[in-house]
Amino acid sequence: MGMLEAIERRKSVRAFKHNPIQQEKLNNILEAGRIAPSAKNRQPWRFIVIQDKEKRKRIEEAAYGQEHVGQAPVIIAACSTNIDYRMPNGQLSYPIDISFAVSFMMIQAAHENIGSCVITTFDEAEVKEILTVPYSMRVVMLLLLGHPAEEVASIRERKQLHEITAKDHW
Fold first, then answer.
1. First to last CA, the chain
2. Are 48 and 131 in contact (CB under 8 A)?
3. How far apart, in whole angstroms, are the C-alpha atoms of residue 115 and residue 134?
4. C-alpha–C-alpha distance, residues 71 and 132, integer Å
5. N or C: which end of the chain has fewer CB within 10 A?
6. Are 103 and 82 in contact (CB under 8 A)?
């Protein structure tokens, strides 16, 4: 499978089978996040892999009852270990760094025929308590992983390339 094909195959899955993910595939997905780029190569992340059914159910509740959160056999809490670093352009680096890592994991998941979905709607304080994340760290997003329970629609509206690109000026 080519890279663009893997990216095109990636869809947000919101219904998962209960089948576990093979450890080798999960390791490959985590490895993709590990080798993702980050500002000044700081690698400001910690990935907490949650497979325990009770913890997944508690995280579902912290995600305001989104059923697919607890249904996914694996949840990865993508956390930042450096919330204060600002890049020279003034932007905080951790939201961008964590987004790179999770994006790489999603593409690898598609390559491994594993469904994924990013969750950003959750009570961070509650998730931090469930996972014993230190106060000074952030849980930036959750990545759900699992085998899709149903075929995900292949048609999704995307803008055409000419609608989102410009050359040499806005």
1. 34
2. yes
3. 29
4. 22
5. C
6. no
- What is the model's pLDDT at position 1? 67
> Is the domain defined by 3-164 classed in CATH 2.40.440.10?
no
Output the six-digit token pair for 12.
């947000």
Note the pLDDT of residue 76: 98
- In the three-class reduction of DSSP (H, G, I as helix; E, B as strand; rest coil), residue 156 is classed as coil
> H or E segment at 16?
none
Q: Which residues have C-beta within 8 Å of that of residue 152, sequence separation ≥ 6? A: 11, 12, 13, 115
- Residue-wise pLDDT for 82-137, tens only, equals 899 999 999 999 999 999 999 999 999 999 999 999 999 999 999 999 999 999 99
pTM, two decimals, is 0.93
DSSP notation for 84-137? S-B-TTS-BSHHHHHHHHHHHHHHHHHHTT-EEEEE--S-HHHHHHHHT--TTS
Q: Provide the residue ranges of all domains of the chain, joining segments of one domain with +.
A: 3-164
CB count, 10 Å around CB of 137? 18
Tell me how crowded residue 143 is: count the other CB atoms within 10 A of its CB. 24
The helices-and-strands tally (H runs, E runs) of the chain is: 7, 4
23 Cβ contact partners less than 8 Å away, ≥ 6 residues apart: none
- pLDDT of 145 strictly over 80: yes
